[in-house]
Amino acid sequence: MALIRHGLPAREDFAAVGSEDALPEGAVIVPFARYRAEREALLARNAPLGVRIEPGERVEELSDDLPRLAVIALAFPQFKDGRAFSSARLLRERLGYKGEIRAVGNVLRDQIFFMSRVGFTAFEVEKDKDAAAFAETMAEFSQVYQPSSDRRPTVLALRQGARMAAE
Amino acid sequence: MYRYDEFDRTLVKERVAQFRGQVARRVAGELTEDEFRPLRLMNGLYLQLHAYMLRVAVPYGTLSSRQMRMLAHIARTYDKGYGHFTTRQNIQYNWPRLGEVPDILDDLASVEMHAIQTSGNCIRNVTSDQYAGAIAEEIEDPRPWAELIRQWSTFHPEFSYLPRKFKIAVTGSPHDRAAVKVHDIGLDLVKSEAGEIGFRVHVGGGQGRTPMIAMTIREFLPKAELLAYLEAVMRTYNRLGRRDNLFKARIKILVHETGQEKFRAMVDEEYALMQGESPIEVPPEEVARIVAYFAPPAFERLPDADPATDRLAAEDRDFAAWLRRNVKAHRAPGYAIVDISLKPIGGVPGDATADQMDLVADLAETLSFDELRVTHEQNLVLPHVRKRDLPELWRRLKAAGLATPNMGLASDIIACPGLDYCNLANARSIPIAQKLSERLADQALQEDLGELKIKISGCINACGHHHVGHIGILGVDRKGTEYYQISLGGSADENTSLGEILGPSFTEDDAVEVVDKILGLYRELRENGESFLQCYRRVGARPFKERIYGAH
User: Fold this and answer.
1) CA spacing 20 to 30 A to B191: which of A23, A30, B243, B300?
2) Are residues B320 and B266 in the same domain?
3) What average pLDDT does the structure give for chain B?
4) Is residue A98 part of a domain?
5) Helix H segments across B400-481?
6) How many of the other CB atoms lie within 10 Å of CB of A153?
7) Does residue B252 fall inside a structural domain?
8) Is residue B158 assigned to a domain?
9) Cβ distance B302 to B386 under 8 Å?
């Protein structure tokens, strides 16, 4: 497994903690259910905090706490479960989350481009080879048709720009 | 017709390069078949019973002659000399080799075509009315909107891993030839009382294992809001559609389990919340740019009737039958819409040889402003033909076996590829289609039976649309033997209905006899020139059940 953050290989600096595990020192990512149960204590710790959201869980329920969370890890139990694509866009566009959105679980090379478009900034990829191909996979498409969280100018906007320049 | 600009062209080329890399990784063993499957499916490549099958998109069923020639070239070069037009206005090649698929995609890209999203749990190729832009009754040409949807849905980052496949159809005519109410989203262009044109939005239709008719969730959606509203529907579905059970994952299940009013409210709430987020409004200049590509061709000012054509019709019964069945009224005087039947008697519905494709391309180029259409009923259309050219066109089509005068008649049968090709099938569809076609071949008989839609699927997935056939035939497997279940009374037009199962299933030969008996009874029961469907709707299933099963 390899972590990529903002396009570059990164060292893991968060401990992924399960629902029953003892909390280690330092930065942790905890399941959403545990966060709900131990919210006060977790926020009182003097270390960066992340929450792991499963596909069926609603990111809206975290909206008030978002400024205090360093990482939202959106889980892909299977790569074909695409609910987290909507969760990421909601975090960025509706809830204004500015921190790290991390893809965790069954994260494969060929999903990364779409993930980055909807607001993911970090990826825990299963295969080291996929991490090495990150730059390549991000360069496969030079144009996009839809507006999304990445704020890339769309083909429609580029056409409009060209029309205005021609006038 | 729409033409790619540099952006469209770049994206399609980049997709080919990406897929070439994915194939190379598969061949090198870096990807397992499990990992490769969703990647190839997203590009229309299936693994079938005997070989790979490549499904090529024909967006909203529109083709130029150059594109049709390329489809012929691909059939000849990479396949066995033919292709199969499908019930979603696409074309399938049944024998490509994996290593050559990227080359096929390169060839397609050179004529502004692709196989993007013709499979997979994503938004599929958008379909439309095959007579768009040509038929007199049209409120507005739906193709510019279909093209806008094509672009918006291509590589949509949020909606490429949906619970299940997603099909959108658009029509601009009161008479629905696009079967919009059996699509995940169906869009009708409608005119409001104030004279403004917008969309009526239907959601949650579908066929397959659990056929359902779509519910109308918006009576009038201003055109400018189309993509934003579609995003609200898609997001609602992506988040809430069932992922625990493959058979309950389509949006129809979500819509029908939630209920029309509640689902509408959920979409409206999402739509309201979306305002002010990523702006998805399409600039009017962009709409105008796309609409301009679909401007009517430069029709000549012609008298509506052509004496030479009328003379030949009076002299030649075959030509007259072809005019009656395969030629439709055009919006421009002196012009006609011509259906090209891919249903020769005893043939394979929807198949065309490379030579036939080349001929049709020549005819489109010289006689129909370079335009062709593919229909969801597996035929082709020349949308804009001068009436004075009809005799010549007919002779040339006839010589190539493409002038069977059976559009809308008993032998104009829809059939999926079935167990001859498809690894989902339980039974073969093609042989029973061929036998029925031969049994019902007589032109006088067919014309006497009138409008009749027989639709055959080789399995419950219903690619052959049997649920909406006036007579639907579903292939089932009973202990290793192919049986056929018959349903009656389905329809896919603006009065959509689902067929009712007649009773226990039959062997292939018996099923042909049963269809014959059903049609015999219809001829006894009909009143005042009723069509089969009208008659069935009046008398119900009972007399048919009694005739078929009473004797047993």
Assistant:
1) B300
2) no
3) 96
4) yes
5) 430-439, 443-449
6) 12
7) yes
8) yes
9) yes
Cβ atoms of B160 and A112 within 8 Å: the answer is: no
Owning domain of residue B326: 307-399
> How many Å apart are CA B203 and CA B213, to the nearest integer?
9
β partners of residue B292: none
DSSP state of A92: I
pTM: 0.96
Structurally, chain A folds into a number of domains equal to 1
**Share of residues in chain B with pLDDT > 90 (%):** 95
CA separation for the pair B502, B507 (Å, rounded): 14
Using the structure block, give the residue that is written with the tokens 């490379």.
B354
Whether pLDDT at B135 is above 70 = yes
Contact B187, B168 (CB under 8 A): yes
| pLDDT the model gives residue A13 | 95
CATH number where A111 lies = 3.20.20.70
CATH number, domain of B376, equals 3.90.480.20
| Cα–Cα dist A115/B352, whole Å | 41
- Is residue A78 a contact partner of residue A53, using CB atoms and an 8 Å limit? no
Position A41 in a domain: yes
**Nearest CB neighbour to A141, from listed B11, B30, B239:** B11
Where in the sequence is the domain holding A44, given as residue range(s)?
2-141
Q: What is the pLDDT of residues B199-223, one digit of tens each?
A: 999 999 999 999 999 999 999 999 9
CB-neighbour burial class of residue B106 (10 A; exposed 0-12, middle 13-18, buried 19+): middle
Report the DSSP pairing between strands A49-53 and A71-76: parallel
Structure-block tokens of residue A161? 């720009």
Is B502 within the bounds of a domain? yes
Chain B interface disruption, residue of A155, A158, A160, A164, most B CBs within 10 A = A155
**Which value does ipTM take for this structure?**
0.97
For residue A128, which residues of chain B lie inside 8 Å, CB to CB? none
How many domains, in total, are found in chain B?
4
In a domain, B293, yes or no: no
Tell me if B158 and A158 make a contact (CB, 8 A cut-off). Answer: no
- Any CB–CB contact under 8 A between A166 and chain B? no
> Cα separation of B122 and B157, whole Å?
10
Q: Rounded CA gap, B524 and B325, in Å? A: 24
Residues 6+ apart with CB under 8 A from B475: B418, B419, B425, B426, B427, B428, B429, B432, B456, B457, B458, B459, B482, B483, B484
Distances (CA, A) of B112 to B69, B115, B356: 13, 11, 21
Residue type, B368: S
Binary contact (B14, A158; C-beta < 8 A): no
| B229 and B150 share one domain | yes
Would you call A156 and B285 a contact, using CB atoms and an 8 Å cutoff? no
Contacts of A143 in chain B (CB under 8 A): 7, 10-11, 14
